[in-house]
Amino acid sequence: MTDPQTPDDAQPQDQQRRILTPGSDLNPRREFLRSAALFTVTAGALGGGLELLTRRPGAGSAEAQSADPFARPARPLGPYDTKEAVTPYGQATTYNNFYELGLDKADPARLAASLKPRPWTVRLDGEVRKPQTVDIDTLQSWFPLENRIYRMRCVEGWSMVMPWLGFPLAALIRRMEPTSKAKYVQFTALLDPKQLPGQRQAVLKWPYVEGLRLDEALHPLAFMAVGLHGRVLPGQNGAPLRLAVPWKYGFKGIKSIVRITLTSTQPQTTWALAAPSEYGFYANVNPAVPHPRWSQATERRIGELGRRKTLPFNGYADQVASLYKGMDLRKYF
Ligand code: MTE
């Protein structure tokens, strides 16, 4: 039995609710049955190792490997990886929140072809010594790619386990050479209604923006993903570059980033702009603080029946709780 209070399992009442809930599930009962029928695979079953996670199909030859950043040698399961069942590729890429590509869960996969992740540049600026605009392939070549198997908990009350491929955000920020004034990081997604037709509707203020405190951004869990399940990141999951901060609600994981700006003051964030009483800047996963319209105590893992308990900081409390020492997490939600 599922909790009827959560938007994940409840039919949205009206358009307003649809707008104010990140990615309201517009036909949740049908989606729930479909998800439950699909199976999950364990991290261990993903090929007896992580080689599968670092290769694109057809990247087998030495020549292809040297030209292909996704063919770099894999690492064994690292200290930040969960050993929990990984959400299958088919589900992780067809049940998405990406409002620039539609409001329904199935829309982003359907409309992703309009998003062109190459050529693509990322502006690195603000409180840095060397502002610059860099091509995505150059940016990616600066860092060895790593696998990170992270839980992802959406504010709506569902979760997945995502095998990302990418690099630590801290490595990029260090390379940007922050000035002493840098205290926050602002991320900006692509603004282009031709590529992102959902931007023709003012359901949110475009472009989608997000932010982190600098010490959060420098935490080793904060990750920039360029791949998923060993393949280049699909458009619907935020190609070519998206953020993964697994101790925070999924809406912090901004997709299709074109600009990263270090700032001295706290940047604006899309969902806090849209509904400040419902979504805060911090958005740390917290089962003790309900959303004003539903409980956050439990979640539905996509592909599973029933619900499981949501853990403080999404199970990453040992690593990140010290970042918030002395802060009232009900106030800074
Ligand atoms: N990034 C952009 N640019 N636009 C969005 O609508 N949705 C967010 C986040 N990043 C969103 C976004 C939300 S609400 C969630 S839960 C996650 O992306 C979902 O990521 P996924 O589709 O890869 O599972």
From TrEMBL:
Cofactor binding, per record: Binds 1 Mo-molybdopterin (Mo-MPT) cofactor per subunit.
Q: Which residues make up the binding site for Mo-molybdopterin?
A: 96, 99-100, 154, 237, 242, 253-255
Q: Which InterPro entries match?
A: MsrP, OxRdtase_Mopterin-bd_dom, OxRdtase_Mopterin-bd_sf, TAT_signal
- Keywords of this protein's UniProt record, alphabetized? Metal-binding, Molybdenum, Oxidoreductase, Signal
- Catalytic activity entry: L-methionyl-[protein] + a quinone + H2O = L-methionyl-(S)-S-oxide-[protein] + a quinol; L-methionyl-[protein] + a quinone + H2O = L-methionyl-(R)-S-oxide-[protein] + a quinol
Query: Oxidoreductase: is it a keyword of this entry?
Result: yes
Disordered: region residues: 1-27, 57-85
Extract the Pfam families matched here.
Answer: Oxidored_molyb (PF00174)
Q: Where are the transmembrane segments?
A: none
A GO BP term, please? protein repair
Instruction: Spell out the SUPFAM superfamilies in the cross-references.
Output: Oxidoreductase molybdopterin-binding domain (SSF56524)
Name the Gene Ontology molecular function terms of this record.
Answer: metal ion binding; molybdopterin cofactor binding; oxidoreductase activity, acting on a sulfur group of donors, quinone or similar compound as acceptor
What the protein does comes down to:
Part of the MsrPQ system that repairs oxidized cell envelope proteins containing methionine sulfoxide residues (Met-O), using respiratory chain electrons. Thus protects these proteins from oxidative-stress damage caused by reactive species of oxygen and chlorine. MsrPQ is essential for the maintenance of envelope integrity under bleach stress, rescuing a wide series of structurally unrelated cell envelope proteins from methionine oxidation. The catalytic subunit MsrP is non-stereospecific, being able to reduce both (R-) and (S-) diastereoisomers of methionine sulfoxide.
Identify the PANTHER family for this entry: PROTEIN-METHIONINE-SULFOXIDE REDUCTASE (PTHR43032), PROTEIN-METHIONINE-SULFOXIDE REDUCTASE CATALYTIC SUBUNIT MSRP (PTHR43032:SF3)
Q: Which family does it belong to?
A: Belongs to the MsrP family.
The identity of this protein, by name, is: Protein-methionine-sulfoxide reductase catalytic subunit MsrP
Source organism: Deinococcus arboris
Taxon lineage: Bacteria, Thermotogati, Deinococcota, Deinococci, Deinococcales
